[in-house]
Amino acid sequence: MLHGEMADISQSIPGRQVRLNQLILGKSGGTSLNLQQVSRDSLLDALCALYDELNKESLRKDNKLISSFVDKYRGTLAELRQMRVNIKDFEMKKIIGQGHFGEVRVVREKSSGDVFAMKVLHKNETLSQSNAAFFAEERDIMANAASPWLTKLHHAFQDMQHLYLVMEFHPGGDLLALLEKHRDSILPPETAHFYLAELVEAIHSLHSMGYVHRDIKPDNILIDRIGHVKLADFGSASKLNAQKMVTSRMPVGTPDYIAPEVLIAMNSVPAATASYGVECDWWSLGIVAYEMFYGQMPFSDDRVVVTYNNIMNFKTSLHFPEEPSYPKETISLMKNLLCEATVRADHQALYQHPYFAGVDWPALRNKVPPYVPILKGEDDTSYFDEFEPEPSSPTLEIPKKEFSGKQLPFIGFTFSHPVDTPATR
């Protein structure tokens, strides 16, 4: 019987060890396990989180086993933290963005001299949200992005208080700043046409990854160093379920750009009825298009409640000014985006829309942009507003006499592109 049981084992001990090594190195090894959860970085995150949670005087004093663990791993953890990517690897330069999340800085990697944008998130702020998974969605999108239209992640790391996302730096500024450079914030028709075509591709690239952005607006549309569009800021993004929908009542987005179905979901009772799909991003693109053509937003009001009311009653509140005058194809584009979700144009309909007639979609990035930033160097921030550093935020509060678990949500956040190592002989 024992011999029969042994015969049922499909792999030897060395074979299973090879599979474990493959998992830690991010290779499937023929398993359905979540690779991110068992990667080298995730396991090291877990070890660091455990050590930090237990390294409290009260716990060490009251429990000899905990004290022994902390003493045993103190030197190891200090050395591991020096070897992993950390804030000391970067020279901090100007702040180019601020928000409730924290800030975005331009940084230079000290060893290579490469320039990046670094987004710093406060852990206590992410934990205070009713859905603290947003930071994970943002990290996953940029870590896995293969599209040239999406901002890519180079490193993600953390300390006790902060999360750090080290991303591509796009020195051309954002679309909002570009709009403001033009008279009445109106883009020339050919310029608007160029950026709208690129945005169709950028938004579709994100949808193809299985995510919806939920905060498409000029501030989150960056211009790279050669003038092409890069979609950014995925802090409000959500992964689509098997039905390609999002079920959430979470308030997201920016009032002027929110689709009516998202507003309905935010106020749905019960919560199970709060669902919508990628159509909400195409609505937001319609708002961006309107803004490009008219220098204003179609439903905006100083009072947010009136803005929301205008959005919900878009069939009567949507108007197109007589001046400036545009061809019927341009008006048709906006009408096909600012409409009911069930009939709203998707990427296939947009490819075939008369407004985009003649666009060579696969060759968009080969076309010379209407605006190419003139840069003084790799870390030139002249196309961004300047911000003053904000006062330090409150520290992440961890109870002194118990295992709080407040570091556990951040296990698996750390990320770096794999580095090839020489084969061992």
Fold and architecture overview:
The chain is 36% helix and 13% strand. Strand 1 and strand 2 (102-109) form a beta hairpin. Strands 1-2-3-5-4-12 form a six-stranded antiparallel beta sheet. It is globular, with a radius of gyration of 25 Å. It is an alpha+beta fold. Helix 3 packs across helix 5 (64-83) and helix 11 packs antiparallel against helix 14.
Give the SSE map.
Layout: H1 2-7, H2 13-24, H3 40-54, H4 57-62, H5 64-83, E1 90-99, E2 102-109, E3 115-122, H6 123-128, H7 134-144, E4 153-158, E5 162-167, H8 175-180, H9 189-208, E6 211-212, E7 221-223, E8 229-231, E9 238-239, E10 246-247, H10 260-266, E11 275-276, H11 279-294, H12 304-312, H13 314-317, H14 328-337, H15 347-351, E12 415-416
Helix pairs in contact: 3-5, 9-11, 11-14
Protein name: non-specific serine/threonine protein kinase
Domain AGC-kinase C-terminal: 357-425
Pfam families: Pkinase, Pkinase_C
Tell me the structural class: alpha+beta
| Beta strand % | 5-15%
Shape: globular
Helical percentage? 25-40%
**Cα radius of gyration in angstroms:** 25 Å
| Ends distance | 41 Å
Could you tell me the mean pLDDT?
90
DSSP helix count? 15
Tell me how many strands there are.
Answer: 12
The main β sheet shows up as: 6 strands, antiparallel
Order of strands, main sheet, comes to 1-2-3-5-4-12
* Low-pLDDT stretches: none
Order of secondary-structure elements: HHHHHEEEHHEEHHEEEEEHEHHHHHE
Pfam families: Pkinase (PF00069), Pkinase_C (PF00433)
Keywords: ATP-binding, Kinase, Nucleotide-binding, Phosphoprotein, Serine/threonine-protein kinase, Transferase
Organism: Cordylochernes scorpioides
Catalytic activity: L-threonyl-[protein] + ATP = O-phospho-L-threonyl-[protein] + ADP + H(+); L-seryl-[protein] + ATP = O-phospho-L-seryl-[protein] + ADP + H(+)
